[in-house]
Design brief:
alpha/beta
């Protein structure tokens, strides 16, 4: 029997996982992306873009397309999507494997200030003009318009449109991974005093955190949202093992 797997993507891990599953024979794969990135990286398996209409819509999509297993490999900050995945898997009565890479941990020399959301990061920058590096998605930048006194260096995968209505902003369009030496140079040349970042985990975006440590720059770290109460696996190899285990259980039960 050809087993079918629906992967909810949004991270490099999802793409790599899909590619490794594609190397195995006997799987029908579909990678679903939210569509927030205008020019996504080429994916190794068939792909769809867009939402499902909540947990019930996702469950209907799973049932109508006869998927045997659901994989949640979305971004650690996509809490709503992950919650929908948990509910949809229950409604469709299929197993769920959730890949959540571990968060970065504070190291000796780090100057981190934890904040709960972007608005809190804006407030934490303070009233006095400073130079801040915003390493966030373009959809998350609007709150910074409330603090036009700062000088912003903004890096995003896609161009920011419309531009922020602040007098001092420089925009960089780039996709990681980023080298440590380049991040140090970027922060030094722009005289950055604070970095605003999500705790995404992984290696692709970590260089800015290490560069901040070496340069003594403060990081306003937006902490991860509470996730649905479900077991997770920390890396691609563990996810592959969990997927194969769940599919073998289906085979044993003759489902």
């Amino acid at each position: 029997m050809t087993r079918s797997i629906l992967i909810l993507g949004g991270t490099a891990d999802a793409r790599i996982l899909a590619g490794k599953l594609a190397e195995d024979s006997g799987y029908r794969l579909l990678l679903s992306m939210a569509g927030r990135t205008r020019d996504p990286v080429q994916q190794p398996v068939p792909m769809r873009t867009g939402g499902f209409g909540g947990a019930s819509g996702l469950a209907d999509f799973i049932t109508e397309n006869r998927f045997d297993l659901l994989v949640d490999a979305t971004h650690p900050y996509a809490a709503r999507v992950s919650a929908n995945a948990v509910e949809a898997a229950k409604m469709a009565n299929i197993p769920l494997v959730t890949l959540e890479r571990p968060a970065w941990e504070r190291q000796v020399g780090d100057d981190w200030q934890s904040v709960v959301d972007v608005e809190s990061a804006v407030a934490a920058l303070g009233n006095t003009s400073t130079k801040a590096f915003l390493a966030l998605g373009r959809q998350e930048l609007l709150p910074f318009e409330a603090a036009p006194q700062h000088h912003y260096l903004i890096r995003s995968v896609d161009p920011v449109e419309p531009l922020l209505t602040v007098p001092h902003a420089r925009y960089i369009t780039a996709r990681g991974p980023f080298a440590l030496e380049d991040e140090i140079k970027l922060l030094r040349e722009n005289h950055i005093a604070s970095i605003v970042s999500k705790n995404s985990g992984g290696t692709a975006a970590y260089a800015k955190i290490e560069a901040a440590r070496q340069l003594g720059i403060r990081v306003l770290m937006i902490e991860r949202p509470m996730r649905a109460n479900t077991a997770t696996v920390p890396n691609i190899d563990t996810a592959l093992a969990a997927i194969r285990h769940q599919l073998s259980l289906l085979d044993e039960r003759g489902e």
